[in-house]
Amino acid sequence: MKRSNRLVYLSNFFLENPWEHSQLPQFVDSLNTTKASISEDLDIVDTVFRNEGLGYLKRVTGAAGGVKYIPEFSLEKSNQFIQELCDMLEDPVRILPGGYLYMSDILGDPRKVREIGRVFASKFSRLNIDVVVTVATKGIPLAYATASFLNVPVVIVRRDPKVTEGSSVSINYVSGSSRKIQTMVLPKRSLQEGANVCIIDDFMKAGGTITGMINLLGEFDANVKAIGVLAEADDEEEERVVDSYTSLVKISNVDIKHKQIDVNPGNFSNEI
Amino acid sequence: MKRSNRLVYLSNFFLENPWEHSQLPQFVDSLNTTKASISEDLDIVDTVFRNEGLGYLKRVTGAAGGVKYIPEFSLEKSNQFIQELCDMLEDPVRILPGGYLYMSDILGDPRKVREIGRVFASKFSRLNIDVVVTVATKGIPLAYATASFLNVPVVIVRRDPKVTEGSSVSINYVSGSSRKIQTMVLPKRSLQEGANVCIIDDFMKAGGTITGMINLLGEFDANVKAIGVLAEADDEEEERVVDSYTSLVKISNVDIKHKQIDVNPGNFSNEI
Fold first, then answer.
1. Is B113's CB within 8 Å of A52's CB?
2. Chain A residue with the nearest C-alpha to that of B113
3. CB burial class (10 A; 0-12, 13-18, 19+) of residue B146?
4. Which of the listed residues A28, A76, A221, B257 has the most CB atoms within 10 Å of its CB?
C-alpha cells in the first residue's frame, strides 16, 4: 500500500481502537511495507493528532514494543467545548418546574455526547480505569461515550432488578433531593472484585444518587477512582455529600419567577 | 499543510462527521492548499474507505458542491460481525431463568455496541431518518451508536415520566411477554411532527414493546421507517405483532434443562 493510503488506513485504525496495543510487524504485514516506512507513518499521524488536540501515539521500543493511541483532548479544546455548553444551557426557556433544567436535546445529540465523553476520558485517562459505571437512564449515553475513549466496558446500575441479568446485589439509599428511600441493583456477573471504577452521571444536586452508587460499588470492593458529572446544581440549602468529583458545568441562581439562570464552567476548569 | 498531514486530518474529520456536507473551499482555507490538491486527497480517502468497507465520500459538483462521508459498512463485514455475535451468544452459560439470555457483557462493550450501530445505520442509511427512538434502558447504547453513524438525534421513550423533561404524552400498552399493562412516556418537546423515525431495541419477543412505541409515535404523527432489533427470540407460542423489522440475530430452541440454545443470523442477512 502506498504511504498516502496507509495514512488514511492508520488514522482510522487508531481512532477506532484507542488504547489498543499494536505491534509494528502486524502493520508491516497487513499494509505490505517496511518497518521504517510504518515508523515514519506513525510520526506523521502522531504530529497531526497532537496538532489537532486529539491526543497522541504512544510508542514503546524494544522486543515487546509497539504503539497505542491515547485520546487526550487538549485542555484548551475541552474548556472551549465547556463554554459552548454553558452558553447553550443558559437559555431561560430551559427552566423547568422545581428548578430543573431541560437538557434532553443536548443529551440526545450523539455528537455532543461524544464530546462530553471525550472530555471526561481525557481527564481520567491516567487513572487506569477498568470500567465506567452509571445509573439508568440519562447518564447511560455519557458513560458509553467516556468508556469508548477509555476502551473499557460500561456497567449500568438499575433502580429495578431485571430477570435478564441473573442474580444481583442491591442496596437502599436516601435520595438527596427527594429524601425518598430508593433501591439500586447491580448484577453479580457485571463487575469483578477490586476493579478501578469511574462513575459518570448527567446531573448532581445533593449527591445522594452518587453516594448510593459508591456504597453499592463498595459491595464489589471496587475502587472509585473518579466521578464525572455533566452538570452540578449549586444548592445552598443542602450540603453536598460527595466532595471529590469533576463537573463540566455548574448551574446556579435558578430564578423561576424572573426566568433567569446562571450556568458557568464547573470545577473541571479549575483544577489543572 | 503537506499532503500526508492533510490525509490524517481529513480522515479524522470525515470519521467524526458522517453525513456532514462540507464545501471544498473550507478545506482549501483551513489546510492552506489548492482545490486540485484537496480533490486528490478526497480521492485517496474515498479509495481507502471503500477498500476497508467503511463507506465512501459522496461528491457533488457545481456551485453548491462539496463532499460528505456516507458510513456504509459493507454487507460482507456486517455479516461477518453478525456471525461473531452468534458464536458469542450461543454459549449455554448465558441461559437465564425464563429462557432469557445474558447479553449485558456484549451490550456493555462500547466497541461491540458501536459495530452494532454501524450495521444498523448502514442498512437504514438511505431512508432519510430524522431521529432514532428507543425505550429505556438496554436499547439506549445501541440507539446512540446507530444515531452517531446516521448523524441524527436520539429520543428515549421512558416507562416513567420525569419532572426534568416538561410536559409529555403517554400511552398504555400490553406487554407481549408478561401480558401486563405498562406505560410509555415521551416528552412533548422531544419529537417534531412528521419526523422519519427509526426504532432501535436490544431484544424482541412477541413485539409488544415495539408495538407500544409505534402507537406512541403515532401520537406525534411520526413515520416509522425502520425497526432494528439486536436479537429476536423465536417464540412459537406467541404470534408476533410486529412484522416489518430487521434483526441481527435470532435465538431459538432455548432448552434450559439440557443447557442448549441456537443462535443464528437474523433476517438482516436474508434480505439483501
1. no
2. A144
3. buried
4. A28
For residues B206, B208, B214 and B216, what is the CA-based torsion angle, rounded to 10 degrees?
-170
Give the largest CA-CA distance in chain B.
69
Residue in B47, B145, B154 closest to A5 by CB: B47
Residues B150 and B128 in one domain: yes
Question: What pLDDT digit, counting tens, does each position of B212-235 carry?
Answer: 999 999 999 999 999 999 999 886
Residues A128 and A210 in one domain: yes
Cβ contact B266:B250 at 8 Å: yes
What's the rounded Cα separation, in Å, for the pair B272 and B264?
A: 17
Distance CA A37, CA A25 (A): 11
| CA A138/CA A80 separation, integer angstroms | 24
Per the structure, the complete domain to which residue B38 belongs is given by 3-70
- Give the ipTM of the model, two decimals please: 0.93
Specify the number of domains making up chain A. Answer: 2
pLDDT in tens, chain A (272 residues): 999 999 999 999 999 999 999 999 999 999 999 999 999 999 999 999 999 999 999 998 877 779 999 999 999 999 999 999 999 999 988 888 777 788 988 999 999 999 999 999 999 999 999 999 999 889 999 999 999 999 999 999 988 766 666 788 999 887 766 677 888 999 888 899 999 999 999 999 888 889 999 999 999 999 999 999 999 988 666 666 677 899 999 999 888 888 889 999 999 988 54
Contact B12 A54 (CB under 8 A): yes
Which of B18, B35, B70 corresponds to the end of one domain? B70
Q: In this structure, what CATH number is given to the domain that contains residue B56?
A: 1.10.10.10
- Given A70, A96, A116, which residue is the final one in a domain? A70
In a mutational test of the A interface, the residue from B1, B164, B251, B254 whose CB has the highest number of chain A CBs within 10 Å is: B164
SS3 A20: coil
